[in-house]
Amino acid sequence: MSVLDLARPEIRTLQPYSSARMEAGGGQIMLNANESAWQPIGEAGAGCNRYPDPQPERLLCALASLYGVKREQLFVGRGSDEAIDLLVRAFCRAGQDAIVVQPPTFGMYAVSARIQNAAVIEAPLATDFSLDVSALLAAVAPSVKLVFLCTPNNPSGKAISGADIEQVARALAGRALVVVDEAYIEFADQPSVIDMIDGYEHVAILRTLSKAWALAGARIGSLIASADVIALIRRIMPPYPLPSPCVAAALEALSPSGQDAAREHITVVREQRTIMRRVLPQLSCVREVLPSEANFLAVRFADAGDVYQRLLHAGIVVRDIRRYPGLGDALRITIGTPDENARVLAVLNEAMSNKERA
Questions:
Q1: Contacts of 350 (CB under 8 A, 6+ apart)
Q2: Helix (H, G, I), strand (E, B) or coil at 234
Q3: Per-domain boundaries in the chain
Q4: How far is it, in rounded angstroms, from Cα 288 to Cα 131?
Q5: Is the separation of the CB atoms in 176 and 140 below 8 Å?
Q6: Which CATH architecture has domain 3-19+54-253?
Q7: Around Cβ 267, how many Cβ atoms within 10 Å?
Q8: Three-state secondary-structure class, residue 265
């Protein structure tokens, strides 16, 4: 059985849109796409009068080299969100098919499914936020086409072992596409499972330049999967998903000097994460700091609402995650610069001192 047998049959036979840039390129006088012949004013818009390459060759090659895959195994879009949306649309028939998620987890899996009118089946994480493999596999009904695994998990920060991911992949061969979201993997001790795509055609990986590569505003995300899955996704992608300035920013970030800078920052984040995880529990307002392999910490507080407001009053914005299952007393704190992290600790210390004096 081919992994494409899991996809919607009408998508497999769909005639994709053929953009002007796909049909012709390399000429000197471009009069085929109804673009403006004049460039916009200002350096920032240089070249923006022309439509960009839908899948820029230089960017594909740079990312393929970074991730150790073939360019045919790679789709690049507007963040991981676009890849999630395209996967759901390609594999889930409205009103018939379903996805499986493990709450608490990234919310866009369920949002994309509900937009498509696909059912969302939940197989909650264990109480320590580890993956319950047995519960997950038991939740995979015949209608399930996609199973999303987030590692390290957002919002808990806990990673899934490669052995658990492979166990899920083996069990779901021919039944569902296993989508492993590695948005935070650069910060983890747990290695990527990208190598699995060569052995399991029904495994796909999500990666992003938003976190470790400091390009959240450029919206560059990747789907890494078998060449057949990538070809299917390219059938339904928008004509021009990647703005030229974003591609330029990504190529600069992926240059040798850009990669050196990213690795330095990743090292700082990992060091600061260790410091924050050691110091935060010493504060009287903190109940627990959850283990994390991401660039954030989920922290349980005696009064999370009060802490949130105190930090906000000091100009520090953290994420209120109390709505997530099992995290009703928690805030998510991104690891910032050493000075920013020190400021968080100082504000919390001051707030607790004032509260104790009162």
A1: none
A2: helix
A3: 3-19+54-253, 258-357
A4: 20
A5: yes
A6: 3-Layer(aba) Sandwich (3.40)
A7: 10
A8: helix
Q: What are phi and psi of 159, to 5 degrees?
A: -95, 160
Q: Is the dihedral of CA 291, 295, 298, 304 positive or negative?
A: positive
Q: Does the 258-357 domain belong in CATH 3.60.10.10?
A: no
pLDDT per position in the chain (358 positions), as tens?
Answer: 799 999 999 999 998 888 887 777 677 888 888 889 999 988 888 889 999 999 999 999 999 999 999 999 999 999 999 999 999 999 999 999 999 999 999 999 999 999 999 999 999 999 999 999 999 999 999 999 999 999 999 999 999 999 999 999 999 999 999 999 999 999 999 999 999 999 999 999 999 999 999 999 999 999 999 999 999 999 999 999 999 999 999 999 999 999 999 999 999 999 999 999 999 999 999 999 999 999 999 999 999 999 999 999 999 999 999 999 999 999 999 999 999 999 999 999 887 766 655 5
Tokens of 123: 């197989």
Q: In DSSP terms, which residues pair with 333 in a beta bridge?
A: 297
Backbone φ and ψ of 8, nearest 5°: -65, 130
Tell me the β-bridge partners of 205.
Answer: 180, 224
Give the position of tokens 């390009």: 215
| DSSP letter assigned to residue 93 | -
